[in-house]
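The following record pairs a protein chain with its ligand, zinc ion.
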Amino acid sequence: MLTVGLRAGPLAEPVPAPTPLPTATPLPIATMPPSPTPAPTETAVLAPSPASGAAGRTVCIDPGHGGADRGNVRLDEDGQILLQEKDFTLPHSLMLADRLRAAGIDVVMTRTTDAEVNPDNTDLNNDGTVAPAGGEARSNQLDDLQARINICNQAGADILVSVHYNGAENAFLQGYEVWYNGDRPFSENSALLARLMHTELGNQYAAAGYDAFDKGIGIEAHALTGPARPGSLVPSEMPGIIVEGLFLSNDDDAAFVVTDAAAPALVTAYEQAILNYFAELTG
Ligand SMILES: [Zn+2]
């Protein structure tokens, strides 16, 4: 367990305003020549907005962990919890959901409260095994993952975005990374989304004044975005990525994560990457 105290972070740089949401360009109102007869009513047609490729799409946001499952935890010298992953994944996901909805995107979330997604440890994938009675539901358990996958699948989501923060026993590990699965029929789309997300994370951290370490893009075999496991998992049916924002176990990363600049930077990165993804699909 980590017992490293959180050291004071550098003074935060001024926070740049989050990128404003694209809005429809107002059309100039045509000036009608004076006429004794009533002019026919013109129906205004909105110009295509930069986010027009996104309107009507459905995004499944998966805030990692929740409830008894704290995710990665950073402890102080006395073993008290300083930072826990679930406290960041949910608020950031809710903020992201608001931003996406404002862009005309339908959002479904695997959870909207600090709760487990499969709190009763139901055998959702019908493999005959469940988490130990009374044990904590953990988001690396197949039933928990199946619960999250089912929500995204039932919504017919276009993409799945899983929001996480990293942690490691090696407190020197730091930075951001994006994962996708390379063995799906839609892996090219997942790779595109991963690249856009990776780029935006770098952009937004830099804009927020944090020189985050780039751990790159990884190809993973995580069950959340991976292929079917016969008899044990119904897979997600859409392109997906798992984003590890920063390492809570690293002093520099943790010092940034607790600043006011962190949430806007993270959420803007997710938002911009998703909008860019749909824009690229639309051409
Ligand atoms: Zn996590």
